[in-house]
Amino acid sequence: MQHKLSGGHLAALLTILIWGNTFISTKLLLEDFQPVEILFFRFLVGFAALWAVYPRMLKLRELRQEFVFMAAGFLGVCLYYLLENIALTYTLASNVSVILSVAPLFTAILARLLLKGEEKKLSAKFFLGFLLALMGICMISFNGSELALNPAGDILAVLAAAVWAGYSLLTKKIGSFGYPVIAATRRTFFYGLLFMIPALFVFGFQPDISDLAKPANLFNFLYLGLGASALCFVTWNFAVKQIGAIRTSIYIYMVPVITVVSSALILKEPVTALAAAGTVLTLGGSVLSER
Questions:
Q1: What distance in Å separates the CA atoms of residue 7 and residue 286, rounded to the nearest whole number?
Q2: How far apart are CA 259 and CA 27, in angstroms?
Q3: Are the C-beta atoms of residues 84 and 100 closer than 8 Å to each other?
Q4: Measured CA distances, 287 to 55, 56, 226, 232 (Å)
Q5: For residue 122, what is the DSSP state?
Q6: What would the pLDDT profile of 85-143 be if each residue is shown by its tens digit?
Q7: Pair 60, 66: CB distance under 8 Å
């Protein structure tokens, strides 16, 4: 049991260290590509990599399990990342990262509502922490002396956090099926890509091949496809299987710290006193709520 816990925590930590910089890569790619183009190429590379590592078909034991994989692909691959990528076109990468850190709070609420008997009752401390986190989100949304709120990107990021909570519970359910993690993750990717197809037509999928050949773009796509998608979804799903959805989601609290520092160093994004205070308040409220 202790070995499983250690392996689960290490897998979650590795995932977060990589995911903390995905906002930076996506923000850079948005200079040449639309959000849906980044999303499609990212998971296409990830899907191909998982096939190369585990070239075997996954045969499901029950038809109802297929619907769970479909729902996981729609929420965790298609809808979540579409909302995240569009949010990055409206607001700072550090803003999106911090706002998405409230995903564990949504996960705990959904677990309480949908997994009755498996989760403890939510205490007053939980809701106090949630309120503090929301106050922090409002502060980072202003992010400057002008205090001019641009809600579009921030609202999309909040919706993405709620969607990720639903995906986390579906991942926990998939883990209980007992299938190999790589094969299960690949099946989720397949449905995610399938659900993306309508979005390609809606958002005008017309990538410029010459932009794909640029070394910086190629590096960022490989980072997102091989590292942040193929590897990280496997390690994340493994962690959820080992230590549970809520305990794994706690590691999301580390993402804003990684992203804010990276955004300042790489993208030269400003870190105002208000944004810094909002980050601390959001993380503090989230941790208080989880404890």
A1: 24
A2: 12
A3: yes
A4: 40, 41, 30, 23
A5: P
A6: 888 788 776 677 777 877 877 887 887 777 655 455 667 777 787 778 777 767 765 65
A7: yes
Other beta carbons within 10 angstroms of residue 92's beta carbon come to 26
Lookup result for tokens 């996981």: 72
CA distance 188 to 152: 29
Would you call 251 exposed, middle or buried from its count of C-beta atoms within 10 A (0-12, 13-18, 19+)? buried
- pLDDT tens-digit readout, 227-282: 999 999 899 888 888 888 777 777 777 777 777 777 777 767 677 777 778 778 87
Residue type at position 183: A
Q: Provide CB contacts within 8 A for 278, sequence distance 6+.
A: 98, 135, 136, 137, 138, 139, 140, 141, 142, 143
Distance CA 15, CA 107 (A): 18
Q: How many Å apart are CA 235 and CA 271, to the nearest integer?
A: 31
Over 50: is that where the pLDDT of 145 sits? no
- Go through 173-197 and write b for each residue having 16 or more CB atoms within 10 A of its CB, e for each that does not: bbbeeebebbbbbbbbbbbbbebbe
Residue-by-residue DSSP string for 29-82: HTTTS-HHHHHHHHHHHHHHHHHHH-------S-HHHHHHHHHHIIIIIIIHHH
Reported pTM: 0.78
Residue with tokens 């496997």: 234
pLDDT in tens, 65-91: 999 999 999 999 999 988 988 887 887
Question: Dihedral of CA 218/221/223/225: which sign?
Answer: negative
Q: Could you tell me the residue range of the domain that residue 33 belongs to? A: 2-290
Structural domain total, the chain:
1
d(CA 152, CA 228): 25
Q: Enter the tokens of residue 200.
A: 């390609």
